[in-house]
Amino acid sequence: MKKFLFLTLVALFGASFLHAEVDRAKLVQRVETCEAILQTFQIRRDTAIPPAVWQRAKAVIILSQFKAGFYLGVQDGYGVIMVKQASGRWSVPVLINAGEASLGFQLGAKSVETVLIITDAATPRLLFNQRFNIGVDAKAVAGPKAAEVERNNKELLNTPVLAYTKTVGLYAGATVKAGRIARDDAANFLLYNTKYTLPELLYSDWVQPTKEVQPLMNLLQSLAP
After folding, report:
1. Do 25 and 31 contact (CB within 8 A), yes or no?
2. Are 69 and 174 contacting, i.e. CB atoms less than 8 angstroms apart?
3. Which of 102, 110, 109, 100 is nearest to 166 (CA)?
4. Does the pLDDT value for residue 174 go beyond 50?
5. pLDDT confidence band for 153 (50 / 70 / 90)
6. If you placed Cys at 131, which of 63, 93, 151, 182 could pair as Cys (CB 3.0 to 4.6 Å)?
7. What is the residue-averaged pLDDT of the chain?
8. CA 156 to CA 165: how far, in whole Å?
9. What pLDDT, in 10s, does the model give residues 119-147?
10. 3-state secondary structure at position 195
11. 166 falls in which pLDDT band (50, 70, 90)?
């Protein structure tokens, strides 16, 4: 019990600093972490996202989160969103924030890595209004993995958001929860040295990709050309 309480307190204090001022090197590290998450998903057959899903992808969201709680749970973190542009090329990765609040008895701590495959053009534009809730503003279901490709069907693949998630750690409980994704224009100003906001970064070629984000763009282009 003492160990659980310690982990929870550490996580709660850590989450309070996630939105503190960060330098550009930390923002680059976030992009690199998201690239590593996507690579890790694709390496293993039991977690790999199948080609049939990538073929329908119009946008991708990659999230890195940490969750902890003792009676009141908190989940906070960051991620990137990328959209497939009219040219068929993928946009630069745009930094976003991701959080969740839960009510109900819960105890423990865990890290959560998520890849969201978006199959429609409207869902990414929900971020034009600052934020949206997964499963509320955008219907989401667990996506089929490569090991289950024979179970793929057109109705499932046409769901607006297909979710792939991995967790590490122990977390028990939680009854009511709502996940949210929010834009982080300030972080993108710093990362790309620009005053363009999320819509322009996603849907125009006005900002050239920096060398640090190019590996993630290349990886995604290879998965969903």
Report:
1. no
2. yes
3. 110
4. no
5. low
6. 182
7. 79
8. 17
9. 999 999 989 887 777 765 666 777 887 66
10. coil
11. confident
Residue 121: other Cβ atoms inside 10 A:
12
Structure tokens at 135: 């499963």
Per DSSP, 225 falls in state: -
What is the distance in angstroms between the CA of the first residue and the CA of the last residue of the chain? 49
How far apart are alpha carbons 209 and 203 in whole angstroms? Answer: 13
Which residues does 60 contact at the CB level (< 8 Å), separation at least 6? 81, 82, 90, 115, 116, 117, 118, 220, 224
Return the SS3 of 78. Answer: strand
Task: Name the region of 104 (left: φ>0; alpha: ψ -120 to 50; beta: rest).
Answer: left
Token pair 């809730």 is found at 133
pLDDT tens digits, 9-58: 444 445 444 444 569 999 999 999 999 999 999 998 888 999 989 999 99
- pTM for the model: 0.79
Bridge partners, residue 169, by sequence:
110
What totals of helices (H) and strands (E) does the chain contain, helices first?
7, 6
3-state SS, residue 101:
strand
Q: How many CB atoms lie within 10 A of CB 134?
A: 21
**CA pair distance 96, 132, nearest whole angstrom:** 11
Single-letter amino acid, residue 183: R
Q: Compute the distance between CA of residue 72 and CA of residue 103 in angstroms, rounded to an integer.
A: 6
Handedness of CA 129, 133, 135, 141 (dihedral sign): positive
